[in-house]
Amino acid sequence: MTDDVSTSRAWVAAPAAYKAAIAAAIDAHGCPEVSKDLVAAQFQYESGFRADVTSPAGAIGPAQILPNTLERYRARTGATDPTNPADAAAIVVAVDCDHAAQLRGRSIAVTDETISKVWMGGMNVVGHAFPGVDRYAREIAHAAAPE
Questions:
Q1: 39 to 30, 97, 127: CA distances (angstroms)
Q2: How many whole angstroms separate alpha carbon 93 and alpha carbon 89?
Q3: Residue 28 burial by Cβ neighbours in a 10 Å radius (0-12, 13-18, 19+)
Q4: Residue 57 and residue 131: Cα distance in Å, rounded?
Q5: Reduced to 3 states, what is the DSSP secondary structure of residue 74?
Q6: CB 138 within 8 Å of CB 113
Q7: Which of 45, 65, 112, 121 falls between 20 and 30 A from 57, CA-CA?
Q8: pLDDT tens, residue by residue, 78-113
Q9: pLDDT at 6
Q10: How far apart are CA 21 and CA 122, in angstroms?
Q11: Cβ density class 121-144: b for 16+ within 10 Å, e for less
């Protein structure tokens, strides 16, 4: 299992159940570019580690997963409940790794910030200025960085 020693602000803030879920998801579905710190930062930003959140757009759970994303990743991850931290973590890790592969495929640097930009706005936003997306990506990257 991935060790839980980290100094990122997001990882330190994560409840133990989320740390365990994120570490297990990285072990099962991870790739080199996706760290526990990045995933913890996404959870922290999206919901403050709360499972009972639903957005006006229908995004559900601690990672604010849209129903179509759940359906797309259900078979690959076995996730069925986006309010469950383990299922949400499995989906986030799988999606982030897919984004990392897309970035690599386009010879774009794979960083916490670029993965977060794709998470928020899709591949079309990378390399362009979108103030809301850029702010989101910078905040995620900052929360995932070692303190």
A1: 11, 11, 22
A2: 6
A3: middle
A4: 20
A5: helix
A6: yes
A7: 112
A8: 999 999 999 999 999 999 999 999 999 999 999 999
A9: 73
A10: 25
A11: beeebbeeeeeebbebbeebbebb
- Tokens matching residue 40: 């913890």
The pair of structure tokens assigned to 106 is 């386009």
Which amino acid belongs to residue 99?
A: H
Phi, psi of 71 (to 5 degrees): -65, -40
- Residue 1 binned pLDDT confidence (cut-offs 50, 70, 90): very low
φ and ψ of 116, to 5 deg: -65, -35
CA distance 143 to 55: 22
Phi/psi-derived region of residue 48, left when phi > 0, alpha when psi is between -120 and 50, beta in every other case: left
Q: Which structure tokens are listed for 94?
A: 């799988």
Q: Which amino acid would we find at residue 22?
A: I
Largest CA distance in the chain: 38
Q: Write the DSSP symbol of residue 129.
A: -
